[in-house]
Amino acid sequence: MNENKFGRLQMIALVIMRVMIGWHFLYEGVAKFMKPGWSAAGYLSQSKGIFSPIFEWITNNPDILAIVNQMNIWGLIAIGLGLIMGCFTRIAAVAGMLLILLYYVCNPLFVGFYYSIPMEGNYMIVNKNLVELAALFVITVTSTGQFAGLDRILHKLFCKK
Amino acid sequence: MTEEKKEPKKSSSKPAGKTLDRRDFLQGLATAPVLGLFGYALKKEIDYQKAQKAAALGTPAVVPEQAELNVALLGAGAQGEVLLNAMLKIPNIRFRAVCDIWTEYNLKKAVNLLKKYKFEVNGYQDYQEMLAKEQGLDAVIIATPDFWHARHTIDCLKAGVNVYCEKEMSNTLEGARSMVLAARETGKLLQIGHQRRSHPRYKHAYEKIIKEAKMMGRMVTVNGQWNRSAAPDLGYPARYAIPADILKKYGFKSMEQFRNWRWYKGLGGGPIVDLGSHQIDIYNWFLDARPKTVMASGGTDYYDKATHEWYDTVMAIYEYETPDGIARAYYKTQTTNGSQGYFENFMGDQGTMVISESEALYSGLMYHETSAPPWDEWVRLGYVSAPKVIMPGEKPEVVLDVRETVSPDEHKIPVVLNDPYHKPHLENFFNAIRGTEKLNCPPEIGYETAVTVLKVNDAIEARRTLNFDPREFEI
User: Fold this and answer.
1) Nearest-CA residue of chain A relative to B13?
2) What CATH number does the domain containing B221 carry?
């Protein structure tokens, strides 16, 4: 493991970042779960850019949409728990990156694109989604789960060195 | 990595594979308490949302065993139809009769509607005949022209029936006064149709925001309006015209006058009474006071004066002596432009409340004065929603003068009525008959409002400030 390249304080900083991203994912999932009738339809339907036909297709198929909604909710919750607990950290981080990438390609922030769901703050191409994606990239390539997280225990139990 | 930190790492991983030491457990579970923290925060959040929702719904309606009430409708015109449609959504009401002098049109329409809902109703032209023939009526709903209210109400009360009478209570103060006395004499219930008095948003605004939380501080000014677009006179299908002798018997000169009675002196009171009295009633209620003086300007500026004796445009200013001091209140109604609709705007030294019966426009907003104590507690209790901060930066092209006061935070009054506007007031009346509630607008309140509003027309004519004698409001 390349963990030892980082000092203790550096690892703690990375764990804090991981836990906070996990918290954010977890609550995004839980909040959608608690909102009766929540659906991604609004977000998907205002999709722009080259992938927009795919997202429109999802919006227009209630059955598919229902599956996508459930996958989104439980995906967010699972990724959130994984990141907080440091459990299958790398898988959770990569899954999180993919999910965020999906959000971004659905509503890309290219110059001249505008959306009816308002965003707080001011963004040009890079938004908070991309920043979170980059942070997850850092989590993916550092073994914070083995520093502080269930991965440390799992690793000890199941990996033969 | 320093040497000394490398050491323990090595020693702990050296046994290799399967052994776990204490350090592994501690670090493996180091982030688990975060989940506990998350759970705690989530519980707080859920409780907060529940409180907000509970406040929005108001007190849950308890539906006890309700006696069925026998009801008749007297006056089945436009307003009668509004009330009828609201009543059809109220359970345990049995419609027995409808009375209207326009038998070929209003009466038929109402009877047919009720038959569609499986009510066996009798239609009458003469209300005396209805009162004589229909035994066992619990309530009559009166929605006739204002100049008939006093006679209709008094005769119904004397026949032993409870009455819901549309506002304006009467077009004359003598009429309104005799109605109060008749209710007292007969001991029957009389509800006046100022339906905002039963509206959950208005009740919330008064009981919670103004009285309990005192979020307004001292109220200093009020303004309100009802703007309505220009509209042609109401017509009628010629083949359904009421015969001249019937019209004359009921006090109308012509079919045109019958259809547009609100504009005629001696019959109605004009827009200030039709529209304004709903809202000026709220001024009295929310300010906890009666006005001391009124000045007003108005006239028939737009329509034909021959057919619009009452004023199409009215602006009035009241001076109130509230328990906290003087408050000044402005009201405007115009029937020539409907922009910005209708609302009441109360301003106190700690907050501003914009409220309307309409769910579409200005339905309920609170603005926090920056110098006032924070409203966090009231947000937490769900009395108002969390604020939306109005940023000056939202209009970047505007250069703000440094002396300009910062815009106050905007909160919503989170109470929505998903029913016809008149339904809660009618329900209050029916439950008062059943003895489970008290009337929200007994005749004494209707009378106070009539005194307050009818004087506007006097002030316009007098062209000067008129005083109210406190004894004028008493009976």
Assistant:
1) A156
2) 3.30.360.10
Contact across the interface for A30 and B28, Cβ inside 8 Å: no
> What's the mean pLDDT in A21-35?
95
- The answer to whether B440 touches B431, Cβ cutoff 8 Å, is no
Residues B407 and B276 in one domain: yes
The residue type of B260 is N
Residue B174 confidence (pLDDT) = 96
Q: In this structure, is residue B62 part of a structural domain?
A: no
pTM reported for the whole predicted model: 0.72
CB-based contact B132:B105 (threshold 8 Å): no
Cβ contact B31–A157 (<8 Å): no
Q: How far is CA B118 from CA A137, B85, B112, B113, B121, in A?
A: 69, 14, 10, 9, 9
* Domain-terminating residue out of B164, B196, B228: B196
- Partner-chain contact A153 B24, CB within 8 Å: yes
Predicted pLDDT of residue B1 = 36
pLDDT confidence tier of residue A60, bands split at 50, 70 and 90: confident
What pLDDT is recorded for position B77? 95
The token pair that represents B253 in the structure block: 């000169």
With a cut of 50, list the residues of chain B below it in pLDDT.
Answer: 1-16, 393-398, 400
Nearest to B17 among A30, A85, A161 (CB): A161
Number of domains in chain B: 2
Q: Rounded to a whole number, what is the distance in Å from the CA of A24 to chain B's nearest CA?
A: 10
- Residue numbers of the domain that contains B184: 69-196
Residues B160 and B233 in one domain: no
Q: How far apart are CA B151 and CA B139, in angstroms?
A: 16
Q: B396-447 pLDDT, tens per residue?
A: 444 545 555 667 888 999 999 989 999 999 999 999 999 999 999 999 999 9
Among B163, B196, B229, residue at a domain's last position: B196
Residue B173 and residue B215 share a domain = no
Asked whether residue B85 is domain-assigned, the answer is: yes
Q: Does residue B31 lie in a domain region?
A: no
Check if B42 contacts A (Cβ < 8 Å).
yes
Min Cα separation B367/chain A (Å): 22
Tell if the CB–CB gap between A26 and B38 is shorter than 8 Å: yes
Same-domain check for residues B254 and B176:
no
Q: Which residues from chain B sit within 8 angstroms of residue A26, using beta carbons?
A: 38
Q: What pLDDT is stored for residue A156 in this prediction?
A: 87
* CATH code of the domain containing B86: 3.40.50.720
Q: Please count the other Cβ atoms lying within 10 Å of the Cβ belonging to residue B404.
A: 9
Compute CA B348 distance to the chain's CA centroid, rounded to the nearest angstrom.
20
pLDDT at position B4 is: 41
CB contact at 8 A, B138 and B69: yes
